[in-house]
Amino acid sequence: MTFEEEEQLLQLKTKCLNNLAASQLKLDHYRSILRSCSLVLEHQTDNIKALFRKVSVLVHQGEYSEAMPILRAALKLEPSNKMIHVQLSKLVKKHMAQRSTEKALYKKMLGNPSRSQPSGPARAWSIAWK
Question: What positions belong to coiled-coil segments (predicted)?
Answer without folding.
Answer: none
